Amino acid sequence: MSNTNGYKTKQREAILNYLVENKNSHVTVGKISDFLEGTGNHVGVTTIYRHLDKLLEQGLVKKYTVDGTTSACFQYSGDEEKCNCHYHLKCEKCGKLIHMNCSRISELCSHIMRSHGFAVDLCRTVFYGVCQDCKEKTEVN
């Protein structure tokens, strides 16, 4: 029985390590599964979800659902509560996720609430575009 628990601990550790290494990206369960498979660790999707649920409960991971048609994404957040307080910018070329901390965000949210009676959900608000690095690469080519 302890071998099973140790194996599950190794799975959790591998998943958490992958999330930490990719903390600037939103990753899907499919990406996690592909990574684990590539390292010789076959972990079922159900098991990955179970570990992610535990990491969510512990506050180590955040879950993002951008729309109802794409898979949920996960991101390591550690104990960073600040991740709830900003918009995300997602590069459509490289997938990089940028946490946008800007004083104008609170001004914009206040304006939207005051003038339009709408409270913006910062956890689910993602602006899509092209990051500076990818833009520069495109300009060079």
Describe what this molecule looks like in 3D.
By secondary structure, this protein is of the alpha+beta class. It folds into 2 domains: 1-79, Orthogonal Bundle (Arc Repressor Mutant, subunit A); 80-141, Ferric-uptake regulator, C-terminal dimerisarion domain (Dna Ligase, domain 1, 2-Layer Sandwich), CATH 3.30.1490. It has 5 helices and 5 strands, in the order H-H-H-E-E-E-E-H-E-H. Strand 3 (87-91) and strand 4 form a beta hairpin. Helix 1 (2-21) packs across helix 3 (45-57). It starts with a helix and ends with a helix.
At CATH level 2, the architecture of the largest domain is Orthogonal Bundle
Q: The CATH topology of the largest domain, please? A: Arc Repressor Mutant, subunit A
State the separation between the terminal residues, measured CA to CA: 57 Å
Element-by-element helix/strand order: HHHEEEEHEH
**Share of helix, binned:** 40-55%
Instruction: Please compute the radius of gyration using only Cα atoms.
Output: 18 Å
Strand content: 5-15%
Average of pLDDT = 81
For the record, what is the CATH homologous superfamily label of the largest domain?
Winged helix-like DNA-binding domain superfamily/Winged helix DNA-binding domain
According to CATH, what is the class of the largest domain?
A: Mainly Alpha
Q: Count up the helices.
A: 5
Structural class: alpha+beta
Question: How many domains comprise the coordinates?
Answer: 2
Shape: globular
Low-confidence stretches: 1-6
Spatially, the strands of the biggest sheet line up as 4-3-5
Number of strands: 5
* Main beta-sheet strand count, sense and barrel state: 3 strands, mixed
